[in-house]
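[Automated response] Your request has been received and processed.

Submitted sequence:
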Amino acid sequence: MSAPVRVLVADDHPVFRDGLASLLSTRDAVEVVGTAADGAEAVAQAVRLRPDVVVMDLQMPVLHGIEATRRLTAQVPDTRVLVLTMGEDDGTLLAAVRAGARGYLVKGASQDEVHRAISTVHAGGIVFGASLVSRIGDLLSGAGTGPDRSPFPELTEREVQILDLVAAGRNNLRIAEELFLAPKTVRNYVSTILAKLQATDRAEAIIRARDAGLGGG
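Generated structure:
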């Protein structure tokens, strides 16, 4: 009998994280070796525990899941990342794939689907949920992204809008007022933008945005 797949579950929502860990633990073919409540903890735990697969949420505090995936795959290359998150917009999907994720499922996938995805990713395969399969090839080939599209295809339209305002010198409070958003929502957007662009800080993101023609407003 083959050894069980060693899995680390990373999600900031304790009910979902602990529930998924418990469900996976009922499978003989899976051994849950740990859990993490944020992206930085996920990287640290992966380095320490060396799991076969990390099931990774993206919208997490401290370190966004995309940046956590990027660091994890660089530091622990034998560990595979399976994204399990709420969002399925093209920009997030593309950013996750570019960061090194080997699979991408949306929350709501069945327990069997998650288990099969873990097994496939562990075996070296690539997995995308049924709703994403038809889009991933086009995303990776650049189909449907004409020259007039945003210079940052990994960003959603809203994220490009916020990056434009950041590049124009607006602070988070001003952006929140202009877009009728909560300041915390803007902070989350900025964190996601930095992670997707692999920008070390806000200043670097501003430079890249201005080089791409944003920030003129």
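Summary generated for your ticket: The domain at 157-211 is CATH 1.10.10.10 (Arc Repressor Mutant, subunit A). The CA atoms of residues 151 and 212 lie 7 Å apart.
If you did not submit this request, please reply to this message.
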